Amino acid sequence: MSRARVARAVAAARAVSAAHGVGCEDARVLQDGINVVVHLAPAPVVARVATLTRLLRPDVARHLGREVAVAGALAAAGAPVVPPSDLLPPGPHEHEGTVLSFWAHVPVLPEAVTPAEVAGALEELEGSLGELAPAGRPLDTPLDDLAAFVERGASWGVEPARLDRLAARLDDLRPRLDGVAGQRHGDAHPGNLLTTPRGRLWTDLEDTCPGPRAWDLACLRSTSRLDGRAALDALPDAPSDAELAPWLELRRLHAAAWSVVAATGHPRRRPAARERLAAVLG
């Protein structure tokens, strides 16, 4: 199943890029997760192909379109982001029901980042995000995703009682998620910060949405890749965990829901996904 899904993603990337005059001699799969990410070598182009994403986001073209628009505006302003491709229209495109976008390929250096370095990179990105007009409704990405999960989770084996608890938790959380809504990365953790010859660049803005600064800080605080609390403490006026509590809970719920979605295409992840969902919902 996984091989067929990846093969369809690669075929779509090849077909759309070829239609725009960009050939591919060696399609290299860089990642098979929620999306399939393909380097269309030798061209400096990467395709992000929505595969499992569509299970929770049937309107995935809207999310990819927002990502391209926000990343393009940031790149044009000199912000530290991987830019959309300039060798062909970045999209989003659709090929035989598959939605994808195109990005510049940047070499990634095997250098780990420290908590303070991630904090500095996020602070730099925040300055550029603050210049953009917010696109969408406050926190629409995580809240819409979780509402969709409540509706569809039973088809992935999630118990109805657990879905009812999730719906109730969301009802309780919404009034507490207040604050000035600016444009946010939406998934600001170290795995989405690449060390490149051009410096550290943020990538994967598919979850970008308007929201308070606390949302991106909660994403960073929740990371298991390094000490998220140390990263926040490197920022000026960093909120405490108690002050971040509503957004930390939203992040846990959102990550747990997506772990279930990811496990539909990666069966080995199912036990861990079930455990993660149980840990946040009981």
Write up what this structure looks like.
- The chain has 282 residues and is of the alpha+beta class.
- 46% of the residues lie in helices and 16% in strands.
- The chain has ten helices and nine strands.
- The protein has helices at residues 2-19, 53-56, 60-76, 115-129, 140-152, 160-173, 213-221, 228-233, 245-265, 270-281, and strands at residues 26-32, 35-41, 45-50, 93-95, 98-104, 182-184, 193-196, 199-202, 209-211.
- The protein has a five-stranded antiparallel β-sheet with strand order 1-2-3-5-4, with helices on both faces. A two-stranded antiparallel ribbon has the order 6-9.
State the main characteristics:
282 residues, two-stranded antiparallel sheet, 46% helix
Write the layout of secondary structure elements.
Layout lengths: L1 H18 L6 E7 L2 E7 L3 E6 L2 H4 L3 H17 L16 E3 L2 E7 L10 H15 L10 H13 L7 H14 L8 E3 L8 E4 L2 E4 L6 E3 L1 H9 L6 H6 L11 H21 L4 H12 L1
Helix pairs in contact: 5-6, 5-9, 7-9, 9-10
Order of helices and strands: HEEEHHEEHHHEEEEHHHH
Oligomer: single chain
Main sheet makeup: 5 strands, antiparallel
Mean pLDDT: 96
Secondary structure: helix percent: 40-55%
Structural class: alpha+beta
Q: Approximately how much beta-strand content do the residues carry?
A: 15-25%
How far is the N terminus from the C terminus?
Answer: 31 Å
What is the overall number of helices?
10
Number of DSSP E strands: 9
- Gyration radius, in Å: 18 Å
